[in-house]
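Hi Y.,

Following your request, here is the sequence exactly as I used it, all 643 residues.
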Amino acid sequence: MGNWIDLNYSSNPTQGSLTHYFKDMSGGKLKITGKEIHIVTPNTRREYYNMNKMRGHIHKELIQQLDVTEDFSQYDNWTCNANYDHDPDPDTWVDMIIFVWRNVDKDSSIYSGIQNLGFGSYGDLGRIGTFDVDSGQRHINTGTFGGGATAGSYFSGLYSDPFRLVTHEFSHYLLGWNDMHNGIGFWGMLSDWGVRSLVANSFERYQLNWIDDPSNYYTLDASSSSVQTLTKYLEDYVTTGKSIRVIVNSSTNEYFYIENHYGTSYWENHTPFSEHPNEIYGDIEPGIYIIRQTGMFTPYSMPQYSKQLIPADGRFEWEAVGRLLNPYDGSRYHPLWQNNGFDRNTGYHTLELVPHNYPNCENPSSITFVPSSSYPYWENISEIQGQSEDAFVKGIKEIFSPWSNPNNQRENTNSVNFAMKLDYKYSYGKYRLKFYMNNPQATNPSKPENFQLSWYNDHPKLTWDANQESDLSYYAVYKKEGSSYSYYDQTSTTSYIDYAEVKYEGGGNKEYVNYKIKAVDTQNYSSLYSDEVRAAIDGEGPPIEKSIVNNENNKPLEFMLLNNFPNPFNPSTTINYQIPRDGFVNISVFNSLGQEVDVLVNKMQTTGKYSVKFNAINLPSGLYFYRMQSGEYSHVRKMLLTK
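Below is the corresponding structure, written out as tokens. Let me know if you'd prefer a different format.
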């Protein structure tokens, strides 16, 4: 243990020290110095237990032992007027003593409960009142918001990281008590469980006036009725201390904070006194992160934290379908969750506590365990320490609006009338962001969700959830046959059937086609591509033997227009069809504008199966349609000419 704190302040503090940490978090506004002293207790834990001495009494004994040689006046530099209100003058009270216990949990394994002598991690020195040092000239307050903190111990406890415990407990003096804890699964000085790094989050920095914004460049007011389109540039949050704050309702302390993380700063790559000092606890991928504040405090009676990270992968409908005794400590039952798909409006993301109706288990609960078909029949899917889809990233998730997922809803699920777009990312990580205040429909549509593949009469059927933007025009369908995607078709509905392909069912030539879609609005702005689906299709086209025939006389029992083969083609392709009775047959070809470009069949034909060749040597590349008509029967299929 060394280099915990610098005795004197400088602009270049010891790396990984408390002086370094608070300099970086506060932008140089909070200058912490002190003296590191190593001391061994005069008694063992067993002896203290037999003497009925607890944490506070042991701290008092050690401080009085140091009082023989230590001048405590050097630690009295501030006057505490009230919580969070200090003047830079001595007031006879020692400012701060922090005990970091190295071995208190290791000297005996037989003690538990009350026999642990009250040790743990607390924002106090033991709550035994006050006592004097320096011959009565100075005083020590061991109470809550008194003059110290306890981190115990160095070799055990949360993440085996005493530095995190020290910064956390000390930060209670800066920010408030337990009702000021942040939500699960992100970063902060008063982080709750699932912390990813030690970095102070935007809420904490704004609360402590560590973020300067005299021109209000980084402050946007979504509660105003003013219609604006604003362009903002945002660099690395950790090193610049800059983030964008969107005011939702200042009277109820509702805000969004937008941070850009490059992931290159010291504090996003180190936890200096942990078991793995060159790592952080979780994953913080480079990109834009959004934190939602829905109040100042989080009382224990509240079902959700008032500050939470909003992961970019969205909200889902979660259903508790069973329960599991915590396999790690056996302390309580947790629900087994089932993900029923995207739900942008009333769903829950993976970093909040989710209510449910399953009996006799933790409620609300974090999304941690799901059923598994193999032993041990459960799987831990917790994302509290991060995964690769929490950040908004250019080209992956760019829109944050009332209709995106996640959307910009408040705690009551009402969305806020603004949109954010990731407009451009510079090579070194800086982002250009656009904000549409009171005009969110002016930005691009959000990415279509729940894109699925099924089959309709052996043809690929694509389905997806409807976009909720009021100015949506249509969905563009893209298809990949080979190495690249190209525009294929469009639809105004939330499903599409590709009649040009037939499901592969063995034999023949197995090939694959891929699909994805974009949402397009009335301004001709398009969304990002949806996720991708892949279909195994018969590369030889639909075989004639699939036609429905009378087994006695081998005559067709119904009309059928089959897929052309090959498709795509250049310059010719074959079209197979069948008719169940004598009649007049017309097969014509049309371009994408609906103009007739060729007539392949236009005559009387008898019952049977036929084929006709289409030669497009004089036609340009593109999508074409061929239509068969006979009596009341009419059917259209598509084909793609590629030159």
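Residues 319 and 338 are 5 Å apart (CA to CA).

Thanks again,
Q.
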